[in-house]
Write a structure and sequence with these properties.
It is a single chain. Helix 3 (63-81) crosses helix 4 and helix 5 (189-212) packs parallel to helix 6. The protein is globular and about 55 Å long. Helix content is 23%, strand content 27%. The chain starts with a strand and ends with a strand. Strand 18 and strand 19 form a beta hairpin. It has 350 residues and is of the alpha+beta class. The strands form five sheets. Strands 1-6-7-8-9-14-11-10 form an eight-stranded mixed β-sheet. Strands 4-5-3-2-20-15 form a six-stranded mixed β-sheet, covered by helices on one side. The chain has helices spanning 6-18, 22-26, 63-81, 97-105, 189-212, 231-237, 244-248; strands at 2-3, 29-39, 88-94, 115-118, 128-133, 139-146, 161-167, 173-180, 218-223, 239-240, 256-258, 273-275, 278-280, 283-288, 306-307, 314-316, 323-325, 329-330, 333-334, 344-348. It has seven helices and 20 strands.
Length: 350
């Protein structure tokens, strides 16, 4: 786990709070989750199976396409914030520090001042998860990664999960987990078991935090590659959709709610990913129940999780009607869009 030395931590915390104006303290705190579909650079990295995203590959991934994608992503993240930047942006399917540096420093995001934390896992293709954050509203105190244990000799390593603990303007800590669980390709029992193993590991880490925080605030988000009622989330992790009744009850900090369950948006959108002409809600946002309590200074006043249906993300679906995500590739065929997923947004009040 990476932690700041105590003197440096004290100075940073003091500067963090003194720098916040009364106007900044009163505004909303917005979180975004986005699977950005294979955000690779154009260079080969030894030990990673990234050859399909090189200029000489069948996909013909090149500098022009790379920077076009970065430009599209920067416009989407900027648009998601509106008048003020999104405070936290969780990204899935990013290759390394280089692509994040380019995204935050060499696109229109540069003027917004984002910093980032990224995993460096053992994924065969070299893909990772990352968290962009606004230093004025979220001060990281520590970060670490959760690695999914492998139980079989030939089991394929998968992506690490990122845990970042940070200070928000209320003086409380917010623990953020960014996840991209193993693919459901083929819907095999092996892949399902691996996702259940991952969420069990995630729940163990979350319970450890609940046990030591006086007023815990946990946010878990990413591409879980499962629906809210699949075993990995409903059983192994033990999260449920929020109901109006449970929302009014006294918080139980051991309970978790999937705010992204059963989402919809205009144009027939009923999920964040469309596979074989059917919408799937594989991207999730989960919070501990205490964050739903209006007795808290920092809370979600009502389930405000929503699908971000920005026009640049969508194109007509000629088969089923309505719309579908503008993806970057369909197999090896370049389509020129930003991603095959739609983002999620969630607003807190503080």
């Amino acid at each position: 786990m990476n932690r700041l030395p105590l003197p440096a931590l004290f100075c940073l915390c003091l500067f963090f709070f003194l720098s916040l104006s009364a106007e900044r303290k009163a505004r909303r705190f917005r979180v975004m989750e986005y699977n950005v579909e294979n955000l690779f650079d154009t260079c080969h990295h030894e030990g990673h199976d990234d050859l399909e995203f090189l200029p000489g590959s069948e996909r013909q991934w090149n500098t022009y396409r790379y920077w076009k994608k970065l430009g599209q992503l920067s416009r989407i993240i900027t648009a998601a914030g509106g008048a003020e930047p999104v405070d936290l942006v969780a990204l899935c399917e990013v290759e390394n520090d280089s692509v994040l540096h380019h995204l935050t420093q060499r696109t229109r995001l540069a003027r917004l001042g984002y910093k980032y934390i990224v995993t460096h896992g053992n994924d065969v293709r070299g893909l990772n998860v990352a968290l962009l954050y606004q230093p004025e509203t979220f001060l990281p105190l520590s970060s670490d990664t959760l690695r999914i244990p492998l139980h079989r000799e030939n089991e394929r390593p998968t992506r690490d999960m990122l845990h970042v603990c940070g200070l928000i303007a209320t003086g409380d800590t917010l623990d953020v987990f960014v996840c991209h669980l193993p693919s459901r390709r083929g819907s095999s029992p092996v892949s399902r078991e691996l996702r259940c193993r991952a969420t069990a590991c995630l729940r163990h880490a979350a319970d450890s935090i609940l046990a030591c925080r006086q007023t815990p605030s946990l946010l878990l988000l990413g591409d879980f590659n499962d629906e809210y009622n699949d075993a990995s989330l409903a059983v192994s992790f033990g999260a449920v959709p929020p109901s109006s009744k449970s929302h009014r009850q006294r918080p139980d900090t051991a309970a978790f709610h999937i705010l992204s369950a059963r989402l919809s948006a205009p144009n027939g959108i009923k999920g964040t990913y469309k596979f074989r002409e059917k919408w799937n809600q594989l991207d999730q946002m989960i919070v501990n129940k205490e964050l739903l309590s209006e007795e808290r200074i920092f809370f979600i006043p009502s389930p405000t999780c929503r699908i971000f249906d920005f026009p640049d993300l969508l194109e007509p679906d000629p088969v089923q009607g309505g719309v579908k995500p503008r993806r970057t590739y369909l197999g090896p065929v370049y389509k020129g869009g930003p991603s095959d997923h739609l983002p999620l947004l969630l607003d807190f009040v503080r």
